[in-house]
Specification:
The protein is an alpha/beta fold. The protein has 2 domains: 172 residues, Rossmann fold, CATH 3.40.50.1260; 195 residues, Phosphoglycerate kinase, N-terminal domain (Rossmann fold), CATH 3.40.50.1260. 35% of the residues lie in helices and 17% in strands. The chain has 14 helices and 17 strands. Helix 11 links the parallel strand 15 and strand 16. Helix 1 crosses helix 2 and helix 10 runs parallel beside helix 11. The radius of gyration is 22 Å and the shape is elongated. It starts with 20 loop residues before the first strand and ends in a 5-residue tail after the last helix. The model has no long low-confidence stretch (mean pLDDT 95).
Length: 403
């Protein structure tokens, strides 16, 4: 267990789970694909991340009742978003039976939970099949609490949501942090509060509004902030630069202007792209053009940072004591526009400093380039990691018992 960063909540390692039923909130919001015999899990990264906590509960004589959301069901239960294929994958990974509950709560589910022997596992249906989940409905939280004696939260990716399974039930059962959630908080608060310097923060993605809190935070504490992805066009527009048909978040322009003003008096170096790769259309087969500068001609859209920017960003990353990367540098899913993200990913993977990567797209890029095992910490939380990094408290963490 890493002792970097801070964590002041009670851990599952100290929880009285022996002989008890444990309601374990996990983040099994995983992609599904169509198999010959029905839906199967396409990427089990999040499942594997929770296995140490599940195994600890079982090894210590507890029975685990697993609960997670999956996707965004609109009108109640949706067979296409059932947890059944996830339960099957958990069973394969653990080499143990995982019973599938008929619903999230209710008399039948309570009966299934009561039949569990030490070490056994029960998977509840998709928590968002219950409309009270996202409303943090007290009645749903009470029904969930009837299923177990102890609550463990290992769903860092959902910890920024005050839902019935992440916050409500934690006030009704003794609540402990799972091993993954604890490690996530430690690693991310270490980057935020006690980084080995220089601290380099590379931020990409489409929206300045998604990252403004993190940008503001690290303008105060980082040594360098590197901006890439489509959100760079909000900065260019704030400077009066032509952006052609590039994706521009209009609400982000005023925020970008605010950031540029703050950067002028900050000790942190804010770096923006100095060249771009553009395409006629958002398509792998489109006409491609390398731009020597950042002004995008009419009829073109900027879809990646250029080679000069990629080299500059890679050099800064290589010299950092701590690197945080969140968000791709361009449309890496289209091969003609993947070079910038690949260069940054390779630089992060090769960096001698401590490296932390967060966000689903960044994780997907690392996996695509075969680099996922070459960073020090790969966060499972997108929105949760951003909120923690900018200094916000997470409801799913705050509701747990103090250490």
């Amino acid at each position: 267990m890493s002792e970097r960063g801070t964590f002041d909540k009670a851990s599952v390692r100290d929880a009285p789970v022996g002989g008890e039923r444990v309601l374990a909130r996990v983040d099994f919001n995983v992609p599904l694909s169509d198999g010959d015999s029905g839906p199967t899990v396409a990427d089990d990264t999040r499942i594997r991340a929770a296995l140490p906590t599940i195994e600890l509960i079982r090894d210590r004589g507890g029975a685990a009742v697993l609960v997670s959301h999956l996707g965004r069901p609109k009108d109640g239960p949706d067979p296409a978003l059932s947890m059944a294929p996830v339960a099957a994958r958990v069973a394969d990974l653990l080499g143990a039976e995982v019973r599938m509950a008929p619903a999230v709560v209710g008399p039948e589910v309570e009966a299934e939970a009561e039949r569990l022997d030490p070490g056994e596992l029960l998977m509840l249906e998709n928590s968002r099949f219950e409309p009270g989940e996202t409303r943090n409905d007290p009645e749903l939280a009470t029904a969930l609490a009837r299923l177990a004696d102890v609550y463990v939260d290992d769903a860092f990716g959902a910890a920024h949501r005050a839902h019935a399974t992440t916050e409500g039930v934690a006030h009704l059962l003794p609540g402990y942090a799972g091993l993954l959630l604890e490690r996530e908080v430690r690693e991310l608060t270490a980057v935020r509060d006690v980084p080995v310097r220089p601290l380099c923060v590379a931020l990409g993605g489409a929206k300045v509004t998604d990252k403004i809190g993190v940008i503001d935070r690290f303008l105060e504490t980082a040594d360098s902030v590197l901006i890439g992805g489509a959100m760079c066009f909000s900065f260019f527009r704030a400077r009066g630069v032509e952006t052609g048909q590039s994706l521009v978040e209009e609400e982000g322009i005023a925020l970008a202007e605010h950031v540029l003003e703050r950067a002028e008096t900050s000790d942190c170096e804010l770096l923006l792209p100095t060249d771009l790769v553009a395409g006629r259309e958002f398509d792998a087969a489109t006409e491609v053009r390398e731009l020597d500068g950042i002004a995008v001609p009419d009829g073109w859209m900027g879809l990646d940072i250029g080679p000069r920017t990629a080299a500059e960003y890679s050099k800064v990353i290589a010299g950092a004591g701590t690197v945080l990367w969140n968000g791709p540098m361009g449309a890496f899913e289209l091969e003609p526009f993947a070079a910038g993200t690949r260069a940054v990913a390779e630089a992060v993977a090769a960096a001698p400093g401590f490296t932390v990567v967060g966000g689903g797209d960044s994780a997907a890029a690392l996996a695509e380039f075969g680099l996922a095992d070459r960073v020090d910490w790969l966060s499972t939380g997108g929105g949760a990691s951003l909120e923690l990094l900018e200094g916000k408290s997470l409801p799913g963490v705050e509701a747990l018992l103090d250490a």
